Structure formats: structure tokens, C-alpha cells
Amino acid sequence: MSVRVAILGGGPAGLGLARQILARDDAGEMEVEVFEANAEVGGLAASFALEGVVFDHGSHRLHPSIDPEILKVLNELLPGVLHRRPRHGRIVLGGRFIRFPLRPVDAALKLPWRIKCGLLRDMLVRPSRYDTDSFAATLEGQLGVTLCREFYFPMARKLWGREPIEIAAEQARRRVSVRSPWQIIRRMTRQLWNRGRAGASFYYPDGGFGRIAEALAKDFERRGGRLSVSSPVTGLQHRDPGWQIETGEGRHEFDRVFSTIPISRLVGLMEPVPPTEVAAATSALHSRAAVLVCVVLDSARWTPFDAHYVPDSAVGLSRTSEPTHYAAARSHSDRTGVCIEVPCDPGDATWQMSDDELVNQVGREVTRIGLPPLKPIRAAEVRRVPWVYPVYDHGYDKHLATVRSYLDQWPGLVTLGRQGLFAHDNTHHALAMAFAAADCLGSDGSWDAAGWAAANDRFADHVVED
Ligand SMILES: Cc1cc2nc3c(=O)[nH]c(=O)nc-3n(C[C@H](O)[C@H](O)[C@H](O)COP(=O)(O)OP(=O)(O)OC[C@H]3O[C@@H](n4cnc5c(N)ncnc54)[C@H](O)[C@@H]3O)c2cc1C
User: Which of 132-136, 195-199, 447-451 has the lowest mean pLDDT?
Assistant: First the structure.
């Protein structure tokens, strides 16, 4: 008898899992269907075109720390398309533009004396013990006050909408890969003779980051999988021994369900309705949203740099990226695109601004920090993305554990991916989760719970690379 598998969400995690299940030698009688709410696949890692210029949803790079086996699969699906590219960004620190990743000579020449002296002091006078009870205390103890004051704390306020002291220490572990100022110095000096290597380079597909998810989707369909886009799942009922899924097109029966949609949305869709304490824990898990303002300029390039990281608290934008610099080959020589990321909360003043107001606002902000004006504008598109960054408020771990142990009670239901595990991650982490889940699924529909628990322990070690 065939095993019917439903996968909720067509981002890298959902599509990676779907493709891996069908790519196995013993895929046999597996029937796999992916339900994706959007008209396009890829989720946060999707791309879209505007006036022929391809945009990603904010700056997206495939980091070379990706598992070589997963990279091998991507290269097989995208032959000759995935290129290793040098990073070429800047960060705005103390009102100056500094190369990012940091370079020793550039940083020494351009960093304001106030910051240089502060960094030196922080390196020499390091506390032997420090508190680890919040994001703020952990980072101050590890990196010193200067880097926190100039970069990490203003960036945290902007990205996550909280004071750093209000955020759990785990967020520092998951989001900041350096553990001391000396490590930053070591990384900078390594780059002197290691140009183009890990940290200073990334992989990027011709045609946009979204081609990774598109290639997974194409291969999945080629192997007989069913992909339903524009199909938001609106209900999920346990019908012993399987599951019934509701979409606008009706009800569908499955033996197993893998969900990569936001964990709180999943709980909200379930029937029977979860107990009150689970509903309360679910509503205590907060995600931050973002508005992405994408403009096409009638100009060959805006700046020579691929991205600008902007901790400056005087402006709302957190990062700009110019996707034409990410790709090895460009499609048009007479125009370029700029994507400006503005973190916010759904329904707040930024979220509610009209598209024209947002374009004007980011236009004023870029010139205020010393970047060139956004003109002449040929076209603009604003995307409002509700689930962008998980926020680890104090106590989030207890709430998450309550929700996950509730979901674990249901046979045949597994949650994974960035949104499904409420995890800070990169695409290669989401793909690692997908590949691990496929390995835990037996061709007879059985599930290796111990193997999945061990994989989840590994996922807890994922640290985001920017
Ligand atoms: C601004 C930004 C920059 C990033 N930069 C990088 C980078 O440089 N490098 C990198 O590796 N990673 C980067 N990431 C992370 C990367 O985007 C994620 O790791 C990846 O998208 C996670 O994949 P996922 O499938 O787990 O989740 P998602 O991509 O969020 O996919 C979840 C999918 O579920 C769908 N869905 C939701 N509700 C429903 C429903 N009810 N029914 C059906 N479908 C539903 C959504 O539409 C979505 O397609 C970045 C993320 C952000 C936000």
C-alpha cells in the first residue's frame, strides 16, 4: 500500500524534504504532495523579477559551510549555475563606511578613534566571568562594550524590536558567531592570505537565490511529486490513523504530515483545538516582520558594494542589497535593483505605510547615512513579510517546549524548518533539517523518532551567518 505524505510549506525546508523523499532508491510507493500558500515557491528564500531585475527577499547568500553532500545535490540540480562569489559589503560604523567582512587595513584606517581605542581596551581588559542571563550580558561579556554599543545592540533593537536586555541569551548564541574580540582579529588576519575563501565568499546561483528552491521543486515534480501552489492550508484534523488537510480546494487524506509553516500557525489550524496552556504558550512566541522595499534604478549600478549593514538608530532600515552584484552574470547593463530591509511588526506604523511613502522614506534614509540617492527610479515594489525573525524573549524556551511537546504527542506529525522549529537559521540549516527528516522516514511510512531527536540536538548548534 502506498504511503501518502503531505508537506506544508514550499520553502527550502519543505521542498528539500519533498525532493529527498522521492530521490531515495526505496521511494517506491511514496505519494508526496507539497502545499504552498504563495503563488511562487521558495518562502523567504524565493526570488522575483521586477522590470527584468531579479530580487531576493533581502540579502541572501548560500554559505560555504553548507554540508558538502547537500551542496553536491544542489550542484547536480543546478549544473554550472551556482558560482562562488567574493563578498563585497560595507558596514556603517560611527558614521563611516567600513568594509564588511572587516579587513585589517581598512578597519585600522577608517574606524573612528573612539571605536578603535574602545576595542583595544575591551581586548586587553576582558572579564574572567560575566553574566549570561540575557543577550545583552552575554555579548558584553564576550565581546566588550564597544562592539555591543556600536553594532550589536542597535542592530538588535532594529531587527527584533526589543532592548538587548529583554532578549534571552540563547539569541546571542544562535545569532553571533564570534565569541571574543580576538576571534574577530583572527578572522580579519586570516582573510589577508585567504581571500575568496570561507567567510569572504559565498555561493550564488545565476538567476537569483530562489533558483535553489525552484530547482528542488522541479526535481520533485519530475520524480512524480505533486506541488500545489496558491494553496494555503486552512485546517488540519487528526483522523486516526492519519490526517485530513483542508485547503480552498477541499479536504485531502494523508498518512503523515510534515509542517514547515510557522509553528504558531500550525497550532492554530489544528483540530481538536489545543488546550488553553498550549494556546497561551503559542501566542507567547513572537516573530518580527519586515517590509522589503525593492526599487529598479535606471542606472548600471547604485554603489559598487553588494550590501550595506546599517545599525545606525537614526534610520529604520537595517540593510541594503544590490542583487546584481551577487550574481556572476547580470541580465541588463542599463539598470540595477536595490532591496532595502526595514524590520517592523505587522500592523505597526511602518507596516501600514503606503508603498509610495515607504519608497520615499527609505530614499530619505539612504541619503541621510551617506549613500547615493535612489534615482532615477524605473519601478518599485514593496513586499510585506510577516514572519521574518524569531524573537527569543525571556522564557521563550519554556513556551516553545510546551508547544513542541504538545505536537510530539500526535502520531504522524512532524514540524521542521526555520518557522516550524522557531529557529534562527540559514538556508543550508533549513536544508540540513529537510535532509535529516527524509533520512528518518522509512519507505513503509515508519518514523525513526530517536534519529530525529538526535538530529534536533544537532540543529540546536546552528549559528546564523550574515
Ligand atoms: C532578510 C533575510 C535574509 C536572509 N539571508 C540569508 C542568507 O544570506 N543566507 C541564507 O542561507 N539564509 C538567509 N536567510 C534565511 C533563509 O531565508 C531561511 O533559512 C529559509 O528561507 C528557511 O526555509 P524554510 O523552508 O524553513 O522556511 P520559509 O522559507 O519561511 O518557508 C515556509 C513556507 O511556508 C509557507 N506557508 C506558511 N503558511 C502556510 C500555510 N498555511 N499553508 C501552506 N504554506 C504556508 C510560506 O509561504 C513559505 O513558503 C535570510 C532570511 C531573511 C528573513
Answer: 195-199
Are 309 and 163 within one domain?
Answer: no
pLDDT tens-digit series, residues 224-241: 999 999 999 999 999 999
For the chain, how are helix, strand and coil distributed in percent, rounded to 5? Answer: 40, 25, 35
| β-strand pairing of 30-35 with 3-8 | parallel
- For 251-274, what is the mean pLDDT? 97
User: Which residues, judged by CB distance below 6 Å to any ligand atom, belong to the binding site of ligand 1?
Assistant: 8-14, 35-38, 43-45, 58-63, 232-233, 260-261, 265, 341, 388, 417-419, 425-428, 430
Give the Cβ contact number of residue 299 at 10 Å. Answer: 16
Return the pLDDT at 416.
98
Which atom of ligand 1 lies at the shortest distance from residue 433's CA? 26
Q: Closest ligand 1 atom, CA of 247?
A: 42
Residue 63 domain-assigned?
no
**Single residue among 347, 368, 391 that ends a domain in this structure:** 391
Same domain, 422 and 434: yes
Is 228 part of any domain? yes
Please tell me the predicted confidence (pLDDT) of residue 181: 85
- Average pLDDT rounded to a whole number, residues 206-213: 97
**pLDDT, mean of residues 347-376:** 98
Pairing relation of β-strands 319-321 and 336-344?
Answer: antiparallel
**Residue 159 included in any domain:** yes
- Evaluate the omega torsion of the peptide bond into residue 274 and state whether it is cis, within 30 degrees of 0: no
The answer as to whether 76 is a domain residue is no
pTM of the complete model beyond 0.90: yes
Cα 141 to averaged position of ligand 1 atoms, centre (Å) = 32
Identify the residue whose C-alpha is closest to ligand 1 atom 14: 426
Q: At residue 269, does pLDDT exceed 80?
A: yes
DSSP string, 187-248: HHHHHHH-TTSBTTEEEEETT-TTHHHHHHHHHHHHTT-EEE-S----EEEEETTEEEEEET
CA of 47 to the centre of ligand 1 (A): 11
Q: Are residues 20 and 149 located together in one domain of the fold?
A: no
Task: Look at residues 254, 279, 252, 251 and name the one whose alpha carbon lies nearest to residue 267.
Answer: 279
DSSP 27: -
Amino acid at 133: D
Ligand 1 binding pocket mutation candidate from 159, 306, 427, 428 (most atoms within 8 A of CB): 427
Q: What is the CATH number of the domain that holds 254?
A: 3.50.50.60
Q: Is the pLDDT assigned to residue 196 strictly greater than 50?
A: no
Report how far ligand 1's centroid is from the alpha carbon of 11 (Å): 6
The mean pLDDT of 88-115, rounded to a whole number, is 93
Task: For residue 38, report the distance from its CA to the centre of ligand 1, in Å.
Answer: 12
